[in-house]
Design goal:
Helix content: 40-55%
CATH class of the largest domain: Alpha Beta
Bound molecules: nicotinamide-adenine-dinucleotide
Shape: globular
Number of strands: 7
Number of domains: 2
Strand content: 5-15%
Structural class: alpha/beta
CATH topology of the largest domain: Rossmann fold
Distance between the termini: 57 Å
Length: 346
């Protein structure tokens, strides 16, 4: 075979090339080079005087804004199944947690060991909430209820502070309190615009800043998730909700800006708070069921608008909330996770 190659080369280039010997000598040069490299490498790492100059050294923690946010190797590698998702002992606040999506996401945190405080303006939570609280024991987490309107900024700040003081920590927030108002733009009153924005946008801002103050105080590095909506990116076909949709766009932009301010860990140990948004498509919740009563044919229209031909259940967002609030998303901040059955993708 080698003679055949030599003949072919000779025919093409008009002279004899010692193919075998060229390959063989190239190989032996390579092997010799490798041997020299490995023996010098061995010397490098076996000589303590050389090693400290060449081996990689982790950056000084205060100069590395990511330290403390990443999952520890001991915790996450082979020690325990999916330890990155473990929230045992951590304390969270979920606004709009009396029912619907907020309650379901609160359950995700409880099921992984979190101590979760649901805030809502309702005097009493739904029957579903009570059922969820009964189940909480089973998972090692706890579920608590506080009647707290996010428009009452002073009361909100006090309630957040008292929770953080009780546990001497606060690890994160899901801001899900929100309202919808269907109304043609020209008929929207100033008061109605102000009310929707005050709950959906200012309420998120004030809850986040109250929580951040406590997280700074207790030097807790953690995560926040604002519930925005795909409606922050597209107008909903069949639904005149100009203020709701723009309030959700504002929340996405708010998350980016707070992430920029709060994500790095400062020299005094404060910071290290990641901030992201979750933007769901249409979900079957009390809010949406009310929309269906108000607008005939809306359900069918919405079902046809996404690639899956159906609306979502609240449980389909639990994994995403757990991901965003846990170490599993430790390198994610200032982002917007859209889960909409493909609605905004075509
Ligand atoms: N359902 C959907 O299709 C959908 C889609 C995308 C985003 N979202 C968002 O998800 C979040 C939850 O919505 P949902 O569908 O579960 O609605 P929902 O009406 O069932 O739940 C909203 C909760 O927020 C509470 N709330 C309202 N105003 C409040 C205030 N001022 N202070 C405290 N609590 C207040 C309500 O009492 C209620 O318990 C909202 O932010 C909503 O905009 C919903």
């Amino acid at each position: 075979m080698s003679q055949l190659i030599a003949k072919t080369v000779a025919r093409r280039y008009g002279h004899n090339i010692p193919v075998i010997s060229t390959v063989a000598s190239a190989n032996s040069t390579l092997i010799a080079k490798r041997r020299r490299f490995h023996s010098s490498e061995y010397k490098l790492y076996s000589d303590p005087n050389v090693r400290h100059k060449t081996a990689p050294v982790p950056p000084e923690p205060n100069k590395n804004p990511a330290v403390g946010l990443g999952p520890s190797r001991d915790e996450s590698i082979g020690q325990k199944r999916l330890a990155d998702f473990d929230l045992a002992g951590r304390v969270f606040i979920v606004t709009g947690g009396a029912r619907g999506l907020g309650l379901c996401l609160a359950e995700a945190l409880v099921e992984t060991g979190g101590k979760v405080y649901c805030f809502d303006r309702e005097a009493h939570p739904d029957e579903d909430w009570k059922e969820a609280a009964r189940r909480a024991d089973k998972w090692g987490g706890t579920l608590h209820y506080c009647q707290q309107d996010v428009q009452d900024y002073k009361g909100l700040d006090k309630t957040v502070e008292s929770i953080a003081n009780t546990h001497r920590r606060l690890d994160g927030l899901i801001a899900a309190a929100g309202v919808q108002q269907i109304c043609p733009a020209v008929d929207y009153s100033h008061d109605d615009v102000a009310r929707v924005m005050d709950i959906n946008y200012t309420g998120v801002m004030m809850t986040a800043t109250s929580a951040a103050r406590q997280m700074f105080k207790w030097k807790c590095h953690g995560s926040m998730c604002f519930i925005a909506s795909m409606s922050g990116q597209v107008a909903n076909k069949g639904l005149t909700s100009p203020v709701y949709n723009s309030s959700k766009a504002a929340v996405v932009q708010l998350a980016r800006n707070l992430a920029m301010e709060w994500s790095p860990i400062r020299k005094d140990g404060t910071g290290g708070i990641r901030v992201n948004c979750l933007s769901p498509g249409h979900i079957l919740t009390p809010m949406v069921l009310k929309n269906f009563e108000e607008v005939p044919g809306l359900r069918e229209k919405w079902e046809a608008e996404n690639m899956m031909g159906r609306l979502a259940e609240t449980t389909e967002f639990k994994g995403a909330a757990l991901f965003l609030l846990s170490n599993a998303s430790s390198f994610m901040t200032g982002n917007n996770l859209v889960i909409d059955g493909g609605h905004t993708s075509w």
